[in-house]
Amino acid sequence: MHVPDGFLDAPTSVATGLVAAGTVAVALRGARRELDERTAPLAGLTAAFVFAVQMMNFPVGAGTSGHLIGGALTAILVGPWTAVLCMTVVLVVQAVLFADGGLTALGTNVTLMGLVAVVLGYGVFRLLVRLLPPTRTAVLAGAAAGALISVPASALAFVGLFAVGGVADVSLGAVAATMGGIHLFIGAGEAAITVAVLGAVLTVRPDLVHGAAHLRRPTDLAPRPQVAPAAGAAR
Amino acid sequence: MGRGHGGALGAVYVPGSSVVHRLAPHVKLVAVVAFALVVVATPVHAGWAWAAYAAFGVLVLAVAAVAGLTAGRLARGLAVELPFVVFALLLPFVSRGPRVEVAGLSLSESGLTAGGGLLAKATLSVLAATVLAATTEARELLRGLERLRLPAALVQILSFMIRYADVVSGELRRMRVARESRGFRARHLGALRVLGPAAASLFVRSYERGERVHLAMLSRGYTGRLAAAPAAAVRPGSWALGLSLPLAAAAVLGTGMLVG
């Protein structure tokens, strides 16, 4: 769900636009560290993955289904800066090609779903991974917590923006409680999907998971059979 | 291949040769953003706001008519707005301030205005953006963004995303067809044991495709930037034509402020 045009007043939209532009500028530098000159193709393909996976329906019971937002998952898979770029690119395409999220609200959407969701989700993940023992379970638990928190956090950030530049006169406490409550539920779904996807990637290609780099061990080389040099080898 | 190569992205563009189709992409981008800005800047609480919104609506629909877009295409564009229709409909119930009785329901006056204004603004902007997307190819839009000085690295990422979004979505679709032809039905949360690994293999395949694409580019002499033909100059006439939409809207807004 993206913020459309006219939801926030002009100063708030401009301010979030500047925040988003700054974020993207920093992320472009950071992504170069994560992916060097492979940035463009790899970030592009990861963004295509995020775009596609957002169209995938996961049943959550009672006949309803939800989809992945993917901020935390992408950050853990390819690193936070690349993830910010991927989410930004997905939001740009959704706004320009599908009118999903207003063009004047693009900065707001990038701030909420690119910056807040990714940075907070990844931050919580990093914190837990550092505190817990270096195991696969700890990585998955960190991912679950990161994904769970990223969704209500960006919803509450939206409420904050709405408090500053909203165009409707509603009681903020009620909006914050409703948005936070609904998005905590959505975040639980996000966490379940994130763990399912991340667990499967960790099983087949653990080397592709940026957030599990500390679990990687150098493979033991197979011992080379010792052959005594033959007596006439130097001839 | 009945629908051509169009996946999600390809289905957006409606081929045509109208004036709107032929305008330079960055001119159209600027025009649509400027139009959205004018719409957003119109004060909801002014008495003449509704006349202004109606005038904006006539302007966008006129452009859509010139571009030869059908009502169906515009309606499909509007579908993304649905979640916010719900929000706007809720506003009169949850807003504060003096209340009015409408059909036995106690509604907030300011909530009614705010909800209606939100709906009108969002609808107008979505219509304008739909006209832009329906008359400009994704590749052209990208060139437009490039000419508007979007950072080159971001444009490159965008171009890879646009090129491969339909490939990756196609892969996702084939995986779904394969799952369902084996009798899989996603009914409850337990389906995650199947869908999780499916999404994971989609990620692994996308990432590996990215690595292959990068190697193929390196072997063709890629040095970190993409070669592009020099951009053609845009005549002042087409700027004037493109900007006539936001300028007309701004004229409506100005008139409203003077008269109202």
Automatic annotation (TrEMBL), chain A:
For biological process, the GO terms are: transition metal ion transport
Keyword Cell cycle set for record: no
Q: What InterPro entries has UniProt attached to this entry? A: CbiM/NikMN
- Single GO cellular component annotation? plasma membrane
Q: Which Pfam families is this protein grouped with?
A: CbiM (PF01891)
For this UniProt entry, what is the primary localization, expressed as one broad class? membrane
Transmembrane portions of the chain: 7-28, 40-60, 72-97, 103-125, 137-162, 182-204
Compartments, as annotated in UniProt: Cell membrane
What membrane topology does this protein have?
Multi-pass membrane protein
Query: What UniProt keywords are attached to this protein's entry?
Result: Cell membrane, Membrane, Transmembrane, Transmembrane helix, Transport
The protein in question is named Cobalt/nickel transport system permease protein
Species: Trujillonella endophytica
TrEMBL record, chain B:
Record's subcellular location = Cell membrane
Q: Name one GO cellular component term.
A: ATP-binding cassette (ABC) transporter complex
Q: Which organism is it from?
A: Trujillonella endophytica
A GO biological process of this protein is: cobalt ion transport
Query: Which Pfam families does this chain map to?
Result: CbiQ (PF02361)
* Annotated TM spans: 27-44, 50-71, 78-95, 115-136, 239-259
What is the protein name for this chain?
Cobalt/nickel transport system permease protein
Print the organism lineage: Bacteria, Bacillati, Actinomycetota, Actinomycetes, Geodermatophilales
Report the superkingdom from the record.
Answer: Bacteria
Q: Which NCBIfam families match?
A: ECF_T_CbiQ
Stated membrane topology is: Multi-pass membrane protein
